[in-house]
Amino acid sequence: MTEIHDPRVEPPYQGDERLLLAAFLDFLRGTIAHKSAGLSEADAHRSVLPSPLMTVAGLLSHLRWVEAYWFDVALRGQPNRAPYSAERPDGEFEIAADLSLERLLADYAEQCAHSREVIAAMGLDDIVTFRGDKLLTPRWVLMHMIEETGRHAGHLDVIRELLDGTTGE
């Protein structure tokens, strides 16, 4: 088996809140890339769990659009460009079937880089109006993204082991 480069950087053991939140989220983002790399196109798009949507490709697409939602739509008030809707709630998973693993990884990396720029321009305690009447802070978004990305990194652990036996960090 070919050795896969691990893009993750260990979070520091010390630092202020912003540094640590960003570092833990980046570590998890790197875990997503690491767990997704090195697969064939067939395996990246193959479902090994009961849900046909739960593939490496589907999770990459989902996480790309989750990043876009929370950093662009929620924090910046931009229009939601995601491929899902009330009529097509799993759209971001469904479109992954037509995208290469290379493209999905690149799109995810590009969105994460953009998300880093958005959060860098804001204070953790800045308040934005969200969903009409709610108030939201960048701190909350970072914490939510750590939870969301970590949960899906766990899904990728299971999927990757079922696909090709790869286990580990």
| Global Rg | 16 Å
Strand content: under 5%
Overall mean confidence score, pLDDT:
95
Total helices: the number is 6
Order of helices and strands: HHHHHEEH
Number of strands: 2
Protein name: DinB superfamily protein
InterPro entries: DinB/YfiT-like, MST-like
Pfam families: MST
Describe the protein's architecture and organization:
There is one protein chain. The protein has one domain: dinb family like domain (Four Helix Bundle (Hemerythrin (Met), subunit A)). It is mainly alpha-helical. The model has no long low-confidence stretch (mean pLDDT 95). The chain is globular, with a radius of gyration of 16 Å. It has a two-stranded antiparallel sheet with strand order 1-2. The protein starts with 16 loop residues before the first helix and ends in a 5-residue tail after the last helix. It is 56% helix and 4% strand.
Short structural description:
Helices cover 56% and strands 4% of the residues. The protein is mainly α. It has a single domain, classed as Up-down Bundle (Four Helix Bundle (Hemerythrin (Met), subunit A)), CATH 1.20.120.
